[in-house]
């Protein structure tokens, strides 16, 4: 097996690019989650405005299931935008916040970009997983609302 050695300058560039890429992906999840939270909130507000109407039982059942799905989606979206403040990874600001200046300097003695990429990537995957599930629940709620509307006619 042949091993290819990559020049240090290429490794530095790739580490910097990877850090920036993961940070960008985390920002995308937060932005998408905020939009979806607003959408789900608007749908829930609309549903609340008709909650006291005399509707067929099947319509109420599908509507209630839609509300549960939207509520579960909202919880997942809140988990996406909830700050992560664990400081056990030694590669993030919550850890550094517990250190004094000398300890911070000692931490900066080595290259921590690979550790930061690992920590941020884990965080990004968790956020995207919650976002994906929230989208699936929101879509399911829309199907339930379409069924409820069809039964109300």
UniProtKB/TrEMBL annotation:
- GO molecular function terms attached to this record: nucleotide binding
Q: Which InterPro entries match?
A: PycTM_dom
A GO BP entry is: defense response to virus
**Which controlled-vocabulary keywords does the entry list?**
Antiviral defense, Cell membrane, Membrane, Nucleotide-binding, Plasmid, Transmembrane, Transmembrane helix
Name the principal localization, coarsely classed: membrane
Q: Where in the cell is it found?
A: Cell membrane
The GO cellular component terms are:
plasma membrane
Protein name, UniProt field: Mobile element transfer protein SpdB
């Amino acid at each position: 097996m042949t091993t290819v050695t990559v020049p240090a300058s290429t490794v530095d560039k790739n580490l910097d690019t990877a850090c920036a890429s993961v940070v960008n992906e985390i920002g995308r999840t937060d932005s998408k989650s905020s939009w979806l939270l607003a959408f789900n909130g608007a749908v829930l507000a609309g549903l609340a405005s008709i909650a006291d109407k005399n509707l067929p039982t099947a319509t109420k059942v599908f509507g209630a299931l839609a509300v549960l799905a939207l509520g579960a989606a909202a919880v997942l979206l809140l988990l996406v935008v909830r700050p992560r403040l664990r400081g056990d990874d030694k590669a993030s600001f919550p850890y550094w916040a517990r250190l004094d200046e000398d300890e911070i300097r000692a931490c900066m003695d080595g290259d921590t970009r690979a550790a930061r990429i690992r920590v941020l990537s884990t965080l990004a995957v968790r956020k995207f997983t919650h976002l994906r599930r929230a989208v699936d629940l929101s879509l399911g709620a829309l199907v339930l609302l379409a069924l409820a509307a069809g039964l109300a006619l």
